[in-house]
Design a protein that fits this description.
It is globular, with a radius of gyration of 24 Å. The protein has one domain. Helix content is 53%, strand content 13%. By secondary structure, the protein is α+β, with helices and mostly antiparallel strands. The strands form 6 sheets. Strands 4-3-15 form a 3-stranded antiparallel beta sheet, with no helix packed on it. Helix 2 runs antiparallel to helix 3 and helix 10 packs across helix 13. The longest helix has 30 residues. It starts with 5 loop residues before the first strand and ends with a strand.
Length: 432
Amino acid sequence: MYHDSLTECLECGLLQRNPVLPPGGAAECVRCGGVMHRDRPDSLHRTLAFTLAGIVLFIVANSFPFLSFEMQGQLTQTTLLTGVIDLYTSGSWFIAGVVFFTSVLAPGLQLALLLVVLTPLALGQMPAWLPSVFRLVRTLTPWGMMDVFMLGILVSVVKLSEMATIVPGTSLFAFGVLILVLAAAQAALDPDLVWSRVPPLTDLSRPIRPGDDHLTCDVCELVMHRGAAIRDGRQLRCPRCTDVLHRRKPKSLQRTWALLLAAIVFYVPANLLPIMTVTSLGRSQSDTIYTGVVFLLDNGMWPLAVVVFVASIFVPMLKLMILFTLLLSVQFRCTWSPRDRTRLYRVTEAIGRWSMVDVYVVTILVALVRLGNLATVQAEAGAIFFCAVVIITMLAAMSFDPRLIWDVLEPEHVRAPRGSGNLASEPSGRSV
Ligand SMILES: [Zn+2]
Ligand SMILES: [Zn+2]
C-alpha cells in the first residue's frame, strides 16, 4: 500500500521511498536504521479481537480485589481503585493522580477508544470524528503502564511475605492475561492502515519532486506540499489528521533542557528522602529507594533486588545522563556517530516507564497494610519526588527531537528551514 508513497523517517528526518513489504516485513530507514513501517497481516480484525478481549479483562481486573493481606486474623483487600483512593485520602494526591492515570485511566481509555475507532472501520465507515479520536489513542499509549504495575505487585508480595499472609485475588489472573492481550493489541495495530483510510481534506494528488517545499506530519506521517497544508491562523495543520504541523518538535532543545534540569533537581530528594514508612507492632521503619533494594538483598531475594535496582536507581540515572549527553551533542553541533546517538535516544524512550515500579509498590503497600495499631504503611515525601522524576524524564524524552542530531550533518538543510534539502537523492527504505 505504501510502496508508491514517500515517508520521512521521524528519527532522522530523511525523506525516502517506501519499499514493497513482504507479509510481516518491516521497512527500515536507510540512514538511521529506525523502523518506519511494519506490515501487520489482517491488522484491523486482529486488533479489534484483542481490544474486545482486553475490555472484558479490564472490567474483571478492576472489579475484584487483586491481593488480600492477612495478619493476626485481620484481613484487608485491595482493588486498583481502592488503592488509589487510600493514597488520596492519606494526602498523597499527586501520586494517587499519577497512579490512577497510568494504571486505570490511560489503559482503559486506550481500549475503549480503540474499540470506538476500529468498529466503524471494520464496517467500512469513516466518521468525521475518527482522526481526532485515533490521535488521542496515540497520545495515551506511552502512559498506560499495567505491565509495570504487575511488577509492582510482585515486589509488594515479596516485601510483605515476611510480615503476613498474602493471598492472590481473582483479578490478579485477569491482570496477568490483560497485560498479554494489551501487548498483542499494540503489536497487531497498524496505524498506517487506519490513516490510509482517512480521506484528506485538501488535494494531495500533485506528486512531490526533488527540491519541492514539503512538510511531514509527525502524527500520521503524511508527506505533503506546503501548499496542501490547512492554514489555521498562523499555524499549518495536517489535511489528514488535523494535527499542527512542525518541521521539528517545537522548541525541542529549550523544553528538553528545562525538563532535564528539573528532573536532576528532583532526583536528589527522590533518593535521599524516605519513600515510605512501615509501622508494624509499634516499630517504625522508613525506607529510601536504596534501603528498599538492600532489604530485598538481605532477605535473599536477589533477582528482585536486581530488578528494582535497575528500574529505580540505574534507569533514571542512565536516562538523565543520556539526555544530557544528547542535548550537549546537539548544542555543540557534534558530528560523532549520529546513528549510535539515535540508538541511545531509542533506549531512553523504551526504558523510562519501568522506573514507576517503586511508586506502584508504595501504592499497593499503603492500600493493603492498613490495620490500625497492628500495621500501617505511609507514603513519604521521597515517593512524590521520585514519581515526579519519572514523569518529568518521560516528558523530556518525548520533547527531544532526534532529527536535531542529524540536522547538523546537513548544513544546507538547516539553512533551508522549509525542508527541501534532502529530497534530491530520494533513496528507498530498506525492506527487511
Ligand atoms: Zn532515519
Ligand atoms: Zn497528520
